Known about the structure:
Helix content: over 70%
Protein name: Carbohydrate ABC transporter permease
Pfam families: BPD_transp_1
InterPro entries: MetI-like, MetI-like_sf
Subcellular location: Cell membrane
Family: Belongs to the binding-protein-dependent transport system permease family.
Amino acid sequence: xxxxxxxxxSTLVMFVLGLFMIMPFLWMISTSFKSPSEVFQYPIxxxxxxxxxEHHLKVWTGKESFVIYYxxxxxxxxxxMVGATFLSSLAAYGFSRIxxxxxxxxxxxxxxxxxxxxxxxxxPKFILFDKIGIYNTHWALILPGLFTxxxxxxxxxFFLSIPQEITESAFVDGAGHFRIFFQLMLPLAKPALAxxxxxxxxxxxxxxxxxxVFLLDRNLYTxxxxxxxxxxxxxxxxxxxxxxxxxxIVPMLLVFLIGQKYIxxxxxxxxxxx
Length: 274
């Protein structure tokens, strides 16, 4: 009885905390459909007296149309997601299943690179991208986005949770590393692959700093830069700002709603063995 009461109590606490966390999001959605006179109305009117689509139409069809920003962000996020997931899995297989001298030391050194603040690399990357001619192009965001230390770590931990006997049996049957990787390890790692894909998509979709530093042409701007431009252009249009923010967050919600089951499976699976 005490255990049941504790579970009910913890559930209620989590519900209240979740409600507080989701309230700003609900206010943002509500404000995007309100008239300007209702924005600062107190007490807050959660349901607009008259729903208007004017502000959402301005976001998609106005001077600062989000269509091109969406296309740019989708292009960058999807290419990085596919590339980073594949390359991270390939590297993780090497660190988890191929024995070579200094493997663990090399992996620890690789992980230590996570301690380097990304901002420190802006100047070297700027010089490099300018030299090779990809500055102010989407390649300046795509190429670095294909490599993720966290992705290698996540996939390695998941591969370590797969019994060694499975790959040893495949070797006995004459399979090589590439066949084992593509036909055995990847199918078993679907939850971890989905988790990494979702997380990587989120990182690249929300990437503001790199886009700000390496993109100059407005036609190349991503959604975060487009939102910043919209705010600067219409700095007193709070309804429009909320509509623009709502538009920018929709893909993230869809990705997490579709893949939340895989995120839990992938993270729990990756934590089994280290």
